[in-house]
Every structure is written in structure tokens, then in C-alpha cells.
Specification:
The chain contains 13 helices and 18 strands. By secondary structure, the chain is α+β, with helices and mostly antiparallel strands. The protein has a six-stranded antiparallel beta sheet, with no helix packed on it. Helix 3 runs parallel beside helix 9, helix 7 packs antiparallel against helix 8 (about 340-365) and helix 8 (about 340-365) packs antiparallel against helix 9.
Length: about 650
């Protein structure tokens, strides 16, 4: 008992999910099967109601038939035995009554249905030979025939009509009721049958051809989806079977006949493959056996002659078509249970209609259901393929609409993201502007503190010590010069450093004039220094202070009589760069091994400040000095740095 109690809880979870699943399957499958049963009933009633009506007042059904050397009375419609030879075809003889008062309307003979070909004669003169129209003699067609009877052939009273029925192939020959009467009374029935059994098949086949081209293009563009190619191949076979001319004895075109006959089972197998792939399943290997019957009929048709291909088609091809339709019905029913979508419902209903029409045709061939021998499965099959192709194209178009919708949503999201980026960029730009303003304010404060502030402190100190007026005047001039330098550095020079150097030249000339020192100005190239769009005021002030320091050192320490400023532009292959050189003819001074001034005096501190300023704006300062003079060479960068961090 303990073992049973221990095992009982383990079985319950296995059964629990099974019952709801079965209920779900039943809740979906039962309504679907009921719907298919309703479609079967409606299709059967439709086949009965949609059969065209013929003018029974002009029917000629009593004939005497001569077949295989025997003559006997028959009543149309009439079936004859199948045969492989056109020798001694069944010969029907009958009579109809003509009144001379009806001659004005014109008379015709009308044959709704026959197989395979007929030759009709009135009073011994042939008025109709269907063998002239190859498509009218196919056993799977319901092509009617009508022919006008010349008035000169008609006699008042009884007239003789004979029908020679040409039969070939394994199917029995069939001759429907013959109608003879006024053309105005027979023509509407003929046109109705032509519309149903000639025009509609051509229209469906034309739609198939168009959809086959569309699906083939879709498959070529989307090779990873073979479902389009499979359905396109099925439609191509259907179109070939519909439009290729059939062989008409005595012409022997057995190979063409084999191709036409083999296309039906192969086409049906392709439709099953389409259904499997369309609903997202993998094509099993053993399912390839569905193509074997069609291939067998095809190969036998190429090797052997008639009537073997037609016999094999009846034995293998037609049952294969029925099996494929049944399998397709099972596939769609499974898809309905699993997917519950409109596509599976639509295809399932279409397959049911075709299956009913196929069963109707089989019963007709076996002479069980109908005595009219009207075949409708080919017509319904083409309609099903057109419906499937249209549904598949609609599905593809809906997918494109979804892609367009997604693209629209993506564009909207990108636009929203762009707006957010613009807003973020505006905020960052505002922050950068504020940071630049703060940096510029800090620079001005530093420059004023280092330059003007120091000069003012010197003036105050000299005033408190009671120094001479000339000394105070020099300090005030230096302060004024520094203030002008700071103000000039704030001007927008558009990246042209030559404008700032021109202003500096005027100040330097005025500074050197009291000391009787000549300033030589040489520009090596006509354009001067290259333009630098990234040049900022704090770059300019560093360069100008370096040049001021070089001139001041030449005046105070070198006892120079001439100072030369040279401006050159060079290009090392990576872009142009400028070089500013300040050379004096003074006494010079000693340099340490590092290239700096020896000692720790004011000159050494000034030179260190010059190199520090050069590094802050990305330039390189080179200093040489000997007994013949001193040269300060400032190599400007190809691109000035954005921040004041070059020294670090």
C-alpha cells in the first residue's frame, strides 16, 4: 500500500496536462470538421444546381448504334466500350423533323458533351468535325460543339442525322444527347457551357500563369523560403497541362501526352509539399514517394507508346491525386488545430471543395453518380491554386505592409531620438559655452593678475618709497602696455595670427624706439603664417607674451642694437606650420646642458616662463645664444590645442 501511495502522486502530473490538451484539440477540430461537412453538402448541391440546362424541346435521343458489326437501338446519353483503334468507330443514326416555316431562323446541331471526337452529318453531308479543334477532344474537358446546318440540306419533314464517335484510350466513349433546332434556341445553352467549361478554365489558367511568374520572382528574391518556388512549380505544371495542345489521333504524339498526363499527380504532390512548408513544417524524406507515380507515368510515356501511359494514369495518377488531396486536407486540419489562423481555414475549405469534385468525377467515370459525364475537378483544382496563390501573395503584401509600418515606426523613433539628441546637444553646447566663458574669464583674471596686477603693485611700491617720477612712469607704461595686450587678445582675428603679430609689431617698435634699437621685420612667404580656425585669444596672448619676453630680454640684458623678427612657413608633408624667430645682435649669455639659461636669476626664470607658455599652446621653443647674439625660435603647431593643458 505504501508503494502504491508513493507512485500515485507521480502519475497525476502526467495525466493532468493531457486532458486539457485533448479538450483544446477537440474544441478546435470538431467545429472545423462540422464546417467541412457543411462545405461538402453545399458543394454537392452546387454541382447539382449549377449544371447547365439544355433545350429539351429539340433533343434527339433515339438513335440506332452500329458498333463492332452490330446494330441496336440506343437512347442518348450513351456509353460505348473503350478501344485503342480508330477503325470502325461507333456510328449513330437518328432522325429529326424540320418544318419549312422554321427555315427563316436558321438551324444548328448542338452537342453538349462527348468523348473523344465526333463527326456529325445531316442527310449525308458532314456539318461538324470536332477533330479540327484539338482542345475539344480531351477527355478531361467538357467542351461543347455547335454547327450551323445549311438550309439547302434541310428537307421538310424527317431528316437524317448521323454521328460518328471516335474513341481512343482506356476510358469508355460517351455521347450526350444531341440537339437539333433553331440556332436562336440552341445558342444560349452552348454559350453557357462554353463560359463554364471553356472560358473559366482559360481564365483560371491565365491567373495561374501570372501568379506563377509572381511566385517565381518572390522565390528568386527569397531563396531561403522554398514555399514560393514549390507553389510556382505546381502552377507552371497546371498551366502547361491547360494550354499545351493534346494529341489527336491519327497523329501520334505519345511523348507530349505522357507529359500532360504526368503533370497532374506531380502537381498534386507539389501542392502537398507547399502545404507542409507553408505551415512551417519540415518535408519528411519518405514523403518524396508521392512523386513516384507521376514520374513513372512520365517515364513510361517517354519510352512506351499509347495506350500504356493513359492506362498507367488511370491506375496510378488519378489515385495519387486523390491521396494528395486527402493528405492536404489532413495537413490543413492539423494547421487549423495548431494555428487557428485564416490561411489554414481558407486553404482547408478549398481543399475540401476540390476533394468533393474529385470524388464526383471518379463516380462519374465509374458510371455511378451522374449520367452527364461532366468533369469539374480540374476546374476546381485550378480555382484552388489561384486562391492559394492569391492568399500567399496577400500574405506577402501584408508582410510588406508590416515592414512599411515598422519602417515608419523606426523613422518616428529615429526622429524622436534625433530631437532628443538635438536637445542634448543644445544643453551640451550651452554647457560648453558656459565652460568656455568661465575659462576665458579665468584667463583674463590670470592675465590681469600676472601682468597688470604686478605692474600696479610695482607702481604702488614705488610711490610709497618715494621713487623718481620716471621710474613710476615706466611702470605705469608697462601696466598700460599689458592692459592693451589683454584687450587686443580679445579681438576676433578669424584664425589669422598675422593680424595679432601686426599689432604687436607696432607696440614693439614703439618700445624699442626710446632705446635706439632697430626692428627688422621679414616675412618669408607672401601669405605669412597659415590660417588656424581653432586659434583662440588665449593662444594669441601666450605667443605675444613670448615675443614680448624675447624683445624685453634683448633690451635689458643683451645691449642689442638690432632685433630681427622672421616669419616662415614650412610643410613637412603632414600640413603647413609656421615658425617665428626673434634674433638680436647682443652679447648673448651662457646656456646650460638642457638648453636653458645658466643660473637662477631673472633671465633664467623668464626663459622658463617662455617655454611654459609655448608648451601651453602646443608650440616648441628653441633657444640659441653665443657672443654674436641670441635667437629665440618658436615653432607653431599645425593645429592649436582646444584646452590649456599642453604643458601637462
Amino acid at each position: 500500500m505504501s508503494d502504491i501511495a508513493a507512485k500515485a502522486p507521480t502519475k497525476a502530473p502526467a495525466k493532468a496536462p493531457t486532458r486539457p490538451r485533448r479538450r483544446l484539440i477537440a474544441s478546435r477540430l470538431v467545429p472545423y470538421l462540422l464546417l467541412q461537412a457543411l462545405i461538402v453538402i453545399v458543394t454537392i448541391l452546387g454541382l447539382r444546381l449549377l449544371q447547365p440546362s439544355d433545350p429539351e424541346d429539340y433533343a434527339v435521343s433515339d438513335f440506332s448504334a452500329r458498333e463492332d458489326g452490330l446494330t441496336r437501338p440506343v437512347t442518348l446519353p450513351h456509353f460505348t466500350s473503350s478501344r485503342d483503334s480508330l477503325a470502325d468507330p461507333p456510328f449513330y443514326t437518328g432522325t429529326f423533323t424540320f418544318r419549312s416555316g422554321d427555315a427563316a431562323s436558321g438551324w444548328s446541331v448542338y452537342l453538349p458533351r462527348f468523348s473523344n471526337a465526333v463527326e456529325v452529318a445531316v442527310n449525308g453531308v458532314v456539318v461538324l468535325d470536332s477533330r479540327r479543334d484539338a482542345n475539344a477532344n480531351r477527355p478531361d474537358r467538357n467542351t461543347p460543339q455547335i454547327a450551323a446546318i445549311p438550309a439547302s440540306l434541310l428537307r421538310d419533314g424527317a431528316n437524317e442525322i448521323t454521328v460518328r464517335l471516335f474513341v481512343w484510350g482506356p476510358l469508355k466513349g460517351f455521347l450526350d444527347t444531341v440537339y437539333v433546332g433553331p440556332d436562336a434556341a440552341l445558342r444560349p445553352a452552348y454559350e453557357t457551357r462554353t463560359l463554364l467549361f471553356v472560358t473559366l478554365p482559360v481564365v483560371f489558367s491565365a491567373w495561374q500563369a501570372i501568379l506563377a511568374v509572381i511566385l517565381a520572382i518572390m522565390w528568386l528574391m527569397r531563396r531561403h523560403e522554398p514555399v514560393y518556388g514549390v507553389l510556382a512549380a505546381a502552377m507552371v505544371l497546371g498551366v502547361a497541362q491547360a494550354f499545351a495542345p493534346p494529341p489527336v489521333p491519327p497523329a501520334t504524339v505519345s511523348r507530349l501526352a505522357a507529359v500532360l498526363l504526368a503533370s497532374a499527380p506531380i502537381e498534386s504532390a507539389l501542392v502537398v509539399a507547399f502545404g507542409v512548408l507553408f505551415f512551417g513544417w519540415r518535408w519528411p524524406r519518405y514523403a518524396t514517394l508521392l512523386f513516384v507515380p507521376g514520374i513513372v507515368v512520365f517515364v513510361v510515356g517517354l519510352i512506351g507508346g499509347p495506350p500504356l501511359p493513359r492506362i498507367l494514369f488511370l491506375v496510378l495518377g488519378i489515385p495519387t491525386v486523390g491521396i494528395c488531396l486527402f493528405l492536404m486536407a489532413c495537413v490543413t486540419a492539423t494547421a487549423v488545430v495548431r494555428r487557428q489562423d485564416a490561411a489554414s481555414f481558407t486553404i482547408g475549405c478549398a481543399v475540401t471543395i476540390v476533394l468533393v469534385c474529385w470524388a464526383q468525377d471518379m463516380l462519374t467515370v465509374l458510371e455511378i453518380a451522374s449520367n452527364d459525364r461532366i468533369f469539374v475537378s480540374r476546374l476546381s483544382y485550378s480555382a484552388m491554386l489561384v486562391a492559394i496563390g492569391a492568399g500567399l501573395t496577400w500574405r506577402f503584401a501584408r508582410a510588406l505592409n508590416q515592414v512599411d509600418s515598422f519602417a515608419g515606426q523606426l523613422v518616428t523613433r529615429v526622429r524622436e531620438a534625433e530631437e532628443r539628441l538635438k536637445a542634448s546637444f543644445a544643453r551640451e553646447e550651452e554647457r560648453a559655452r558656459a565652460a568656455a566663458l568661465a575659462n576665458e574669464r579665468t584667463r583674463l583674471m590670470r592675465d590681469l593678475h600676472d601682468g597688470l596686477g604686478g605692474q600696479l603693485v610695482s607702481i604702488v611700491a614705488l610711490s610709497e618709497r618715494g621713487s623718481a617720477g620716471a621710474t613710476i612712469t615706466d611702470a605705469a607704461r608697462a601696466a598700460l602696455k599689458d592692459l592693451r595686450l589683454v584687450i587686443d587678445s580679445m579681438d576676433d582675428i578669424g584664425g589669422d595670427l598675422m593680424l595679432a603679430l601686426g599689432s604687436w609689431r607696432e607696440r614693439a617698435t614703439a618700445q624699442l624706439r626710446p632705446h635706439d634699437i632697430a626692428l627688422e621685420w621679414r616675412v618669408a612667404t607672401p601669405q605669412g603664417l597659415p590660417l588656424h580656425p581653432e586659434l583662440r585669444p588665449w593662444h594669441v596672448i601666450q605667443i605675444v607674451r613670448i615675443l614680448d619676453e624675447a624683445v624685453t630680454n634683448a633690451v635689458k640684458h643683451a645691449q642689442a642694437r638690432r632685433i630681427a623678427v622672421t616669419i616662415d612657413t614650412f610643410d613637412a608633408g603632414q600640413g603647413p606650420y609656421g615658425v617665428i624667430s626673434v634674433t638680436d645682435d647682443g652679447s648673448g649669455f651662457a646656456l646650460a646642458g638642457t638648453g636653458e639659461a645658466a643660473g637662477t636669476g631673472q633671465t633664467a626664470r623668464g626663459l622658463r616662463n617662455m617655454k611654459s607658455r609655448a608648451a601651453r599652446c602646443g608650440a616648441v621653443l628653441d633657444l640659441t645664444s653665443d657672443s654674436s647674439g641670441t635667437r629665440v625660435r618658436l615653432k607653431l603647431p599645425q593645429r592649436f590645442p582646444d584646452g590649456d593643458m599642453a604643458a601637462g
